[in-house]
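Format notes (please read before filing issues)

Several people have asked whether sequences and structure tokens are stored in separate files. They are not. Every record keeps both together, in the order shown below: the sequence lines, then the token lines. Line labels are part of the format and must not be stripped during preprocessing.
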Amino acid sequence: MRFSAISFRRLTLLVATGLVLFSVAAAQAEELTFQMSPIGHVSKQGVSTQIVLDEKFQDGLLGLEDFSHVWVIWWFDQNDSPEQRAILQVHPRGDARNPISGVFATRAPVRPNLIGLTLCRIVSVHKGKIEIDSIDAFDGTPVVDLKPYIPSESVSDAMRPQRY
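Then the structure lines:
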């Protein structure tokens, strides 16, 4: 498996093709390293979209069926290159009519750490699989975490630019 290393001032991220690894390392006080492994992947088969968990994480789904929505945290594994990670300003939504904005003010797939976040409606939870209505990730995309959506977390007075 081929690894590429991207170094930042206080962060080194190792990315394996199709697999992201993070771990906090105490070996060097000056450099912080994270290691993270996927808990599952996105599966798109015809009209069905599912989050399929690795067997060792399936017990963590207990109680998720009581929620209507889930935050799916995933990795942009098919968009990983030093060039893509270096892009810090984009036209929001890829539309040149929108003014240039920093990537942290957009939902652009190019960013220093390729973490994706999608709120999905849960259709069902069964045998290690969460059927969802849709997700803006590709088939096979690594899923790194799940969090139930709790409506009280919504911000009633949120603001956003007109371009969104």
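For reference, the curators noted about this record: The chain has two domains: 1-37, 38-151. Residues 82-86 form the longest helix (5 residues).
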